[in-house]
Amino acid sequence: MYGKCGRIEEGLGVFRSMKQKNVFTWNALIKGLAKSGEDAIWWFNRMEQEGFKADEVTVIGVLCACSHSGLVDTGQQIFGSLIDGKYGFSPSIKHYACMVDLYARAGCLEDASKLIRDMPFEPTRAMWGSLLAGSRDQGDLEFSEFAAWKLVVLEPKNSAYYVVLSNLYAEMGRWRDVEKVRIMMNERGLRKDLGCSSVEPGPQEDVYEI
């Protein structure tokens, strides 16, 4: 609760005062520190030192913390340990989504794309959304186009993705493609929503749901 409200110090105080801790209280702490990556990692290590075994939620929280703080090497190490069986369970699609987001935020677009391509799951909207946002931040129009088309295929009735494509083609000076996207929208009965000129929300918004 304190983490969600941004009252981290109060949350830490409550946590320290607990006479009995379990994996759920540790997970709540790590999740609350998600935007303070180094702190989340420190407490994760402390959790292991005190003999608590991380579960699926713990690893998701730590990978999210790495994503927020650009801790690529640390995230890779933890994800590698997960794949190697250190934690006693296999990575889920949520863990892969966290890693895609980590790579995309850090500008490691090739790594993000490769992970999506090689993973044993079908890519989700969240993954393509992460890649789209990361490639836009890096000014990589080709990667942006690739991710935007994947989103169009996944959700052909979502006008926001067509708007992003149209804007990308305009930036590239590909006016024929701008017109093709407009025609496609008309054929599918879609209209440009004035509030949807971009699909680059923050991690708490829908496109990044894991």
From TrEMBL:
Keywords: Repeat. One of its GO terms (molecular function) is RNA binding. Pfam families: E_motif (PF20431), PPR (PF01535), PPR_2 (PF13041). One of its GO terms (biological process) is RNA modification. InterPro entries: E_motif, PPR_At4g14850-like_plant, PPR_rpt, TPR-like_helical_dom_sf. NCBIfam families: PPR (TIGR00756). This is Pentacotripeptide-repeat region of PRORP domain-containing protein. It comes from Carpinus fangiana.
